[in-house]
Every structure is written in structure tokens, then in C-alpha cells.
Amino acid sequence: MCAGALFVPIAQPLARLVLALFEPQAPDSFASWGFFNACFEDKEHTEPYVAEQIARDLLAADADLRLEFERRLKTDAEFSTNPAARLEFFLRRHASWDERLNLYPVFRVNHLPGA
């Protein structure tokens, strides 16, 4: 288990309640009531003028990325006409991108290692 993790066994009388509360698509789950909203919110907002400089720097540093970007411009009409999508293309490849955005913090396990 990870540090700070909480294990809730379902071999208990309230197992159905545990499943209902933590299953994200359940109608009365913690997720549907908004208890995990912070996991689904983009906290790091990058101003367009900063994102543009990041894009320039990434294009200058990575020829493969430049080719991928140019290929996408030619083949994806929506992408080529959407400035926000083009900036996001670069922001997702920058070290500051939050890889945990939209990660639901509840995991199912079939068994615990060593159990």
C-alpha cells in the first residue's frame, strides 16, 4: 500500500455501503456528491502568453515534436483552427503538466500483496 492510503475491506456487513460510496458512477457515491471535485479541476492555469513561449521553446528543442505538431495541423481541422487546443498540445508535453488531473483517488484491489 502507498503511504497515506486507506484500505477499506469489503469482507464486512457494510460492504454494499462501501461499494455504493466509492463507486464513482453510483448515484449516491462520494464522487456524485462532489467530494472528489478537486481531483477533476485544472488548478494550474497558464496564461496564453506564457504557453506561447513554452510552445516556442519546445518546438526549438525537439524536432520530433515539431513534426508531430505540423502533422496534426495538416490532418486535424479542429486542432488547426483552435488556438486553445494548440496551446494545450504543448502544455501537456511540458514538465509542469499535472499528470494526476482527472485521476479518481479510489482503487479496487483483488487482494493485498502478502495476504
Q: What structural class is derived from the secondary structure elements?
A: mainly alpha
Strand content: under 5%
Envelope shape: elongated
The secondary-structure element order is HHHHH
- Provide mean pLDDT, rounded: 84
Distance between the ends: 12 Å
How would you sum up this structure in a few lines?
This protein is mainly α and 115 residues long. It is 42% helix and 0% strand. The chain has helices at residues 15-22, 48-61, 63-75, 77-80, 83-91.
Tell me the layout of helices and strands.
Blueprint: H1 15-22, H2 48-61, H3 63-75, H4 77-80, H5 83-91
Describe this structure in words.
- The protein is an all-alpha fold and 115 residues long.
- Among the domains are: 30 residues, no CATH class; 44 residues, no CATH class.
- It contains 5 helices and no strands.
- Helix 2 packs across helix 5.
- It starts with 14 loop residues before the first helix and ends in a 24-residue tail after the last helix.
- 3% of the residues are buried.
